[in-house]
Sequence to fold (245 residues):
Amino acid sequence: MKLSDLVKHVSYSSLVCARTDIAYWVARYGHKLYDPTNAAMARGQAVEHGLKYCHNGGEFDDPIDEAMKEFNKRTALGVDGEAKQREANNIPGYFENYADLWDGKLPQIESYQQKITLEIPGLQVPLIGYTDFEFPDSVVDIKTTGRMPSAISASHRWQGAIYQQAAGNRKVEFIYLTPKKAARYLLEDSEQDWIAVCQAATRLQTFLSAFDDLEHLTSAVIPNYESFYWSNPQTRKTAQEIFGF
Fold:
């Protein structure tokens, strides 16, 4: 079977998923098994939405209020009440140290959630991504997390390498935020990361070509239900029906 039989494009997240848990990739992109929104995911999206107002908001815009409204909208249905309240309580903390990363002078964002499309030689589908904040001299990706990393993670370096291909002469940076800390890291020497991205995409395509169809592919992969990808109980239950165990 062809990669293009299952997807119209690949992305950073889909390639990391294929590398980490190919059975989950098959469930998600082959069988269209999608996780419902959870509180942590909604928190990240809401904080990013609110931070946009730190840069481009008007006099009467409150970034934290905007984040809370976005969070409540995204968690209105089907999100665990205890987890929702915990993440809601944490949201203001993500804003406390953000302005310090800019020395208190937050520049205007030129584009937000800008789509980028790249072609990888020999790949049947394009590679796409969406940048968080774009400025005249940089592309910045926002990560909210419970624990502050000491450097850009290996998987995030893949994401940054994709952005760097489209950024031209602009630098690529990652901003990590916890409820108590903020850090800003510059992506450097990403050439090998870009090679890894291209290799991951083409090897995924080669892997899929060994199978006749989706049923054949499904019968050959082994789901690891202990992986964080399978943390949602309903997703696990449906996957067990798909894979037969």
The mean pLDDT is 96. The CA atoms of residues 215 and 231 lie 24 Å apart.
